[in-house]
Each structure stands twice: as C-alpha cells, then as structure tokens.
Amino acid sequence: MTKINYxxxxxxxxxxxxxxxxxxPFFYVIINSFIYKNNVTLNxxxxxxxxxxxxxxxxxxxxxxxxxxxxxLGLGLGLAILLNQNFKGVSAVRSLMLIPWLxxxxxxxxxxxxxxxxxxxxxxxxxxxxxxxxxxxxxFAPNVALLSCIIVNVxxxxxFTALVFLxxxxxxxxxxxxxxxxxxxxxxxxxxxxxxxxLKPIIAVWALITFIRTFNGFxxxxxxxxxxxxxxxxxxxxxxxxxxxxxxxFNEGSAISVLMTLMSTIFMILYVxxxxxxxx
Amino acid sequence: xxxxxxxxxxxIYFLVILTLVxxxxxxxxxxxxxxxxxxxxxxxxxxLIPRTFTLKHYEDLFGLTYKFHHxxxxxxxxxxxxxxxxxxxxxxxxxxxxxxxxKGKRAFSxxxxxxxLTEPSMLVVPLFFIILLFGLYNNLLGLILTYPIxxxxxxxxxxxxxxxxxxxxxxxAALVDGANRLHVLTKxxxxxxxPGIFTAGIWSFVTAWNEYIxxxxxxxxxxxWTLPLGLASYVAVYDIDWGLVSAACFLYGLPALIVxxxxxxxxxxxxxxxxxxx
Lengths: 280, 278
Prior knowledge:
The complex is a heterodimer of chains A (280) and B (278).
Chain A: H1 7-33, E1 35-36, E2 39-40, H2 43-50, H3 52-83, H4 90-96, H5 99-102, H6 105-115, H7 122-129, H8 145-170, H9 174-182, H10 187-215, H11 219-224, H12 236-246, H13 250-279
Antiparallel strand pairs in A: 1-2
Chain B: H1 2-33, H2 38-43, H3 56-61, H4 68-99, H5 105-117, H6 120-133, H7 140-146, H8 148-164, H9 168-176, H10 181-210, H11 213-218, H12 227-234, H13 242-260, H14 264-271
Helix pairs in contact in B: 1-13, 4-7, 4-8, 4-10, 4-12, 5-8, 8-10, 8-14, 9-10
C-alpha cells in the first residue's frame, strides 16, 4: 500500500483561491475583451486604440512612473546611506521610516490634499513665509498637478525604499571599506566601487517592484485629483476605471485592463527570473 | 581631522532632522487640524499652533450625516473574516512550501510571486465579473471573498521564511514516529511559528482595513460602505470640512499604527522577498 502524500493537501486551499479569484477572472476578462454585442471581434481593442485618451493617459502614466521610480530610488538610496551612519537614536529613526508605509493610500492622499489646499493649505503658506514664492501656489493646476501627485507618492514610498536599501547596505562586509580606506579611496570612490556594485541586485529588484506598483497606481491620484483637472492627471488605471465603471463600457474597459496587465506582465516575468536567480 | 568629524556630525543631524520633519509634519498637521474650529480653518491664515480648540469634528463624525461608526463596523465585518481566511490558507501553503515533498513546488512558488506582484487595479475589472457571476454586487461578502487574493501571497512568503527557520530535526523525529504532516504542523510547528502567524494576521487585517479600489468598484450603496469609501466621500462634496476630514483620518489611521508598531522588523525582510540575503 502506498502512503498517501498529505503534503498536497497543504497547498490545495491556496491553489483553489488563486485559481478562482486570480486565474479564472483573468481568463474571463480576456474572453470578455474580445466580445462585443455577442460577437467575437476585435472591436473593443479597435475602439481603445482609436481613443486619443488612451495614448495620452499611457504617455502620462510613463511620466508618472519614471518620475516616481527615479525619485523614490534616488532619494531612498541617499536616505539609506544616512541611516547606515552611526548617530544617537538611529534605530528609532529607522522605525519611524515605516510610518508612511503603514498609513493607507486614502489617508496619505487626504492629508496631502489638505496640505496642498489652494487657499487654506499650509504648504503655500510655508513656501511664502520662507520667501520661496511670493504668490499662492495652486498645486493642482493643470500644469503642475501631475508633479504634485508624484511628490505625494514619492513621500509615501521613499522611506520604505530606504529601509530596503539599508538592509542591503548592512550585509556589505565592512572590511571592504576598511581596505579601500587604507588604499586611500575617497568617499565617492568607495561609493562607486563598493556600495553601488554590491547593492545593484537589490536596486534592480526594487526598481522592478516600484515600477509595477506605480504603473498600476490608482488610489492616491484618484483621491487627490480624480484624474483632473481636465485630463492633467488621467493615468491609465484611472482611464480604465472611468471607462468601465463610470461610463459602463465593460467590454472596452476589459480591453484596457488586459492591455494594462499585459504591459505589467513583462516586468513581472523579469522579476520572477531575478528572484529565481537569487534563490539559487 | 577633528573639525572634519564635527562637520560630518552636524551634517548628519541636520539631514536626519530634516527627514523627520518632512516625514512627520503631515501627521502633525492632520492631528491639530482636527481640533481647529471650522471658522479658523476656513477664514484665517493657517497656523502651526491652533488658536481655537474644539471637539465638534469628532462629534460630527459619529452623527447621522457622516456615520463614521457605521462604516467602521462594515470595515470590521470585512477585515476580520479576511484575516481568518488569509491566515488559514497561507499557513498551510507556506508550510507545504517550506517542508512538503511536492512536485511542481517551483511552479507554485512562482505563481505566488506573480500574485504578489499583481496590483489591485489590475484585478478590479476581472474580479468585477466574478462578483457579478456570484451575485455579490454591493455585498460585503464579495469583499470578504476577494480581499484574500491580495493578502495571501505576501503572507505565504513571510510565513515560509518563518517555517524554514524552525529546526527541521524536531519535525523529523515526529515523522519517524509515524505522525503525518498535518499532525506535525498542528502539534509541533504551529506553536513555534505563532509570532509569524500573528504578524501575518495583523498585516492581513490592516491591508483589508485600508483597501479602497475594489470596494469602490464592488460596493454601491451607502449602507455597505467601508471606511475608505466613507472617508473619500467626505471630500467628494463642494464644501469640504477639512477639520472633519482630519479627524476622520486620525481615527482611521491610528489603530493600524498602534497594532503595527511592535511588528515592524518582520516586514522589511518579507517585502524584499529574498532579494536581501542574510
């Protein structure tokens, strides 16, 4: 008699859940994106590709994503190096870095909407008091709204990025720096020749995660501006959401959703490859 | 040399303080705004220290118009079952991944990784059809069933790390004695992994508590709104009462911060998903 392998029972519930609530819905939406008035057709995709909004929102989404990735990673790396120094209270400061991450998108968006308020907001007041600007700034005017949204999202994610990089900095063997110091390498050289190369795998992985998360970001911008004013902050996920749920065009919305997921999938596969390599 | 050192220390402290101010100021601002009178907020220059003090916004929140408590109850009705489902499913799966003899383990762990990377905004349209198919539109049960797909992948990953760190000898001894895997899991491993499971549970709860886009798409009626929907509705009016919004943000955000604070160290490691080797 062969012994029953109970091990499969362990992963069964997870597989079922993933099958019902992830894989099946994705197949369903793909099929749905090819159906228009009970016919199998490419109509929905043609409609999507004929809408100028699709291209403008896609372009804007790339600006938003790249702006976010550059600032989050750049500032995050700087902050990580700062947190890797020895000073009094360093561990308390490190824990405080988690606060924006522990907050929810809704809270972050609401509090910054209030701070950036055009007339009663504290940001305008402080900038005027510091003499940086002489007239009130409207942070959600069409030409700067996207930048304001980027600032808010960077504020939310930079501290956490710093903690991720810090975890990487802490495993760099200290003797590498010591011997470089003996050889007379400058701070800048040590950063370029030791820190950056050894941190590269983490930076790459985190850049991918940040890219995927930001590219599909919806909540913060939706609450800050709702995609406006006009179309100034209409990102692809917002375009997908409004098309599907506010205009009720489910098939067209499905097509946008499929395209959005497809674009993210490229980066997701890259990520899985990287993760596999680091497991080995 | 000494002057250079002093200079370095000054720079470090300056940057640290600057960082902390930028980090904490928004919370301070929301906190004090929640106690300012509506008149001070609307008509006077914003002040860092409030001139007026009132609890009116907190009273209003629990009134008939804003119904904060009602939305909070809905959020609890969703978040608690989601936490239980997530813990149950991910504990089993994580243990299976860590210890089980399973063919296709690698494919399964890749699937978990892919689901971890799937953002809620990618899921909203696909899941909407499932919600319609099950007849769960505008029903909190729809949220209870769909939220675990957001929480499970991360929990599985975090718990797997936990199980792997438990010495395997204890389990092997029991297996030799003829106990099966499920038995070993419940009697030996679970008590040892309790802190990890607790952390995963808290994380699931807070994730469900904070989730917005799926609720926005799947819930129509005001009576079924969760807290994020309620809060967003406070700023969806022409005449926004920022004192009230601030009070709501404070009450909504505080519980999550309090329960999370002692558990922070697990998350950084978990979220990098093995990218950082120790």
